[in-house]
Amino acid sequence: AKSLKERLTEIIPERQEEVKAFKKDYGNTVLGEVTINQAYGGMRGVKGLIWEGSVLDAEEGIRFRGKTIPECQKELPSAIPGGEPLPEALFWLLVTGEVPTPEQTKSISNEWAARSGLPEFVEDLIDRCPKTLHPMAQFSLAINALQHESNFAKAYSNGINKADYWGPTYEDAMDLIAKLPQVAARIYRNVYKDGKVADIDLDQDYSYNFSKLLGFEENKEFVELMRLYLVLHSDHEGGNASAHTTHLVGSTLADPYLSFAGGLNSLAGPLHGLANQEVLRWTMKMQETIGQDASDEQITKYLWDTLNGGKVVPGFGHAVLRKTDPRYMAQREFALKHLPEDPLFALVSKLYHIIPGVLTEHGKTANPFPNVDAHSGVLLQYYGLKEQDYYTVLFGVSRALGVMSQLVWDRALGLPLERPKSYSTAHLKKMYAKN
Ligand code: CMX
Known about the structure:
Blueprint: H1 4-26, H2 36-40, E1 54-57, E2 61-64, H3 69-75, H4 87-96, H5 102-114, H6 120-127, H7 135-146, H8 151-157, H9 166-192, H10 206-214, H11 220-232, H12 241-251, H13 256-267, H14 275-290, H15 296-308, H16 326-338, H17 343-362, H18 373-382, H19 391-412, H20 425-432
Antiparallel strand pairs: 1-2
Helix pairs in contact: 4-19, 5-9, 6-7, 6-9, 7-9, 7-13, 9-10, 9-19, 10-11, 11-16, 11-19, 12-13, 12-19, 13-19, 14-18, 15-17, 16-18
């Protein structure tokens, strides 16, 4: 069977030709128009990006290379029969558009384990961070430092031909993904535990090893959750802040490490990835304030207090989605299967039924339904990974799969420096205002 790089070497010229021919026939086709409201409104709905791995539909949610989450769960190789799909297999799918065989999936597990070592100075750097530095800031810091290892940066300074950019980008992408569990687990063990990180098992899969480094591998269910979690958070087309930032930074030919660090910094914002930490905090605070067995009325009142305080209800709403996020549903299914009796899950379920009505009545949000972040915390809590400030780091490890696979395609397709047009209000008024 072919390795991922061998398969890519075959596919890339075909896709390059495909894009060339498509652009030749349709290059001047109008994709959309942009209103002044959209320019002030975070470019919501503006069509202006290419993203190969996934496309988001407002109603049905994400598809990875055309496959829904339940289809991925059915078709991608798993570690145990009928179990959750392996993130290795999803990465192969995102990169190639093809479902890998179990052997090909295993080859990625082995490769990531083999590439996982960190340079000593990066370990030292993480170890010297104060425990009070947010885990996401530590994560970003460490990824920037890993730039020291970049094949792409070295090849560029040695004068690599444009046509060959994708090769060292791919090598960096594989190294970076491989090293993430070591970085992320070191932060976890330093901030919350004894600072000791276990050794990777070279024959195990990525999620097992990440769980092992964190100290959770003995619980098989937790390892399965990790596999599902790393699949679900991987990719959500190109316009979300972490994906777009990685792509934008990468478009300057900054190497994959610098690009991904940029993506992590935007994931660390509370309107994006940090929402998973905020959800749990908000839910626990609610429990503290109105008690374990609060009535629907008490919960509703608490919700209105949040909204009237000028705050968002974390984990609900979405810039593109207009229905319940299928990533939320996949986690809910997992909870129904593995922790149906858990009191915190019961509360999360209750919120799932109450919040959309309240947000609808509030009348502002375009989408009152839960997103991915509304459910991840309760699962992690159940298995004892209780440190909320750490949750976005897990999101970040997963997000690398999507953004790194796209970065390889950015270079393979020769996508240029991104540079959209902006205007000042004064200039826009001069262009359009009647008087
Ligand atoms: N609670 C309260 N108000 C909300 C809301 C929520 N959950 N979601 C949206 N709104 C408000 C917006 O703040 C906005 O108010 P203003 O007009 O006063 O500015 C209004 O409703 C319209 O916003 P929208 O068009 O529905 O949503 P946007 O595309 O602007 O923003 C998002 C999308 C996700 C930032 C927003 O829904 C939000 O803040 N949700 C809570 C945070 C969250 O869960 N983020 C995680 C998203 C998934 C992820 O990236 O990880």
